[in-house]
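Example 9 (inverse folding). The structure is encoded as follows.
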């Protein structure tokens, strides 16, 4: 069971979508919430909605900016006890036809996989020194059945899923708990105005996430991610086909 009150929480990618919805809920529950994001404009907008939120501009795909963020958090927020690796980017591309795939892949892997690993490594000493501490990695139901239009997003999140499992085993005797939240399609700016018909609201996704965390579930499959997991086990070819038929 995880108590989501009176904590100091860092949420990456917290200025829009799921991160913003999550920030609102955690502030309402009495937590100190710190967010980072690439867009200073979006961070300022978040600050207008929630004046008490603490913001840092950071492009997590840049290793130096990522390390600088960790140093600032360590210096100014030594009471940090929850890290939520939520930030992610996606490139909807044709791997064969797109001439810039390698460059896109590097940026996507740096943001979606390397940055969470780097932040965990740099902030673990601080986080683990606090009571009721936690590391929460956000992944996706697509780790069970990938979509062809998201070649790097699927694989970066699958790698983060694997890393999260091994980290949880490594820390099983430590007081810092490791959680993973697997989201389905969620109606956020991530989809650039064209979310799939099956997408749920960010508020609904966050509500289910919070319930799972409060129950102490270490792997939380939200909404359709749970069904996709079951389908991928019972009929993997069918699950893969259906995911790639989504409009």
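The amino acid assigned to each position is listed next.
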């Amino acid at each position: 069971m995880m108590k989501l009150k009176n904590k100091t929480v860092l949420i990456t990618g917290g200025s829009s979508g799921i991160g913003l919805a999550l920030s609102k809920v955690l502030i309402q529950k009495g937590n100190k919430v710190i967010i980072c994001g690439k867009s200073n404009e979006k961070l300022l907008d978040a600050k207008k909605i929630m004046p008490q939120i603490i913001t840092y501009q950071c492009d997590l795909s840049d290793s130096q900016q990522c390390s600088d963020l960790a140093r600032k958090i360590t210096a100014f927020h030594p009471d940090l006890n929850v890290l939520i690796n939520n930030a992610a980017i996606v490139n909807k591309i044709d791997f064969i036809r797109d001439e810039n795939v390698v460059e896109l892949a590097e940026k996507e892997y740096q943001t979606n996989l390397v940055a969470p690993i780097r932040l965990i490594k740099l902030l673990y000493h601080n986080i683990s020194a606090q009571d009721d501490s936690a590391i929460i990695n956000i992944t996706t139901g697509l780790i069970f059945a990938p979509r062809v239009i998201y070649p790097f997003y699927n694989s970066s999140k699958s790698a983060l899923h694997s890393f999260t499992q091994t980290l949880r085993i490594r820390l099983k005797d430590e007081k810092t708990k490791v959680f993973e939240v697997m989201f389905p399609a969620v109606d956020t700016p991530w989809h650039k105005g064209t979310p799939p018909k099956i997408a749920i609201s960010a508020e609904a996704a966050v509500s289910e996430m919070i319930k799972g965390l409060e129950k102490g579930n270490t792997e939380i499959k939200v909404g359709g991610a749970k069904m996709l997991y079951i389908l991928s086990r019972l009929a993997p070819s069918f699950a893969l086909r259906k995911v790639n038929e989504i409009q």
